[in-house]
């Protein structure tokens, strides 16, 4: 009888150890899936915005780890703020716990002076 009890305990122990690895693997899969879906969602939202869809803006969206990065340059502080708000809204609506990192630089378009 003792032999069966030891066998049962060992079996349960192995199952629990396997379940722990499965939970961690599921978390990694969820993060990878979130990476794959967030980037195109944020890009699409940015492209559809009239302030940001300007040929003088260059906005790259990427995910690394649990962070979504906005990189490149925009023509104004308004555009940078708009990009932040849009990207954060997408993250919130997706239920994502990812952090948004805005590394956009402001590069104003030089004014062309009128020639007489």
Describe the structure.
The chain has helices at 2-47, 77-93; strands spanning 58-64, 67-74, 99-102, 105-106. It is an alpha/beta fold. Strands 1, 2, 3 and 4 form a four-stranded mixed β-sheet that branches. Helix 1 runs antiparallel to helix 2 (77-93). The protein has a single domain, classed as Alpha-Beta Plaits (2-Layer Sandwich). The chain is rod-shaped and about 95 Å long. It is 54% helix and 18% strand. The mean pLDDT is 82.
Would you summarize the structure shown here?
By secondary structure, this protein is an alpha/beta fold. The chain is built from 2 helices and 4 strands.
Query: How many domains make up the coordinates?
Result: 1
Q: For the report, how would you describe the main beta sheet?
A: 4 strands, mixed
Q: Helix/strand-derived class?
A: alpha/beta
Query: Overall pLDDT, averaged?
Result: 82
- What is the CATH topology classification name? Alpha-Beta Plaits
* CATH architecture name: 2-Layer Sandwich
Indicate the percent of residues in helices. 40-55%
Count of separate DSSP helical elements: 2
Low-confidence stretches: none
| CATH C-level name | Alpha Beta
Radius of gyration: 24 Å
State the separation between the terminal residues, measured CA to CA: 104 Å
Strand content: 15-25%
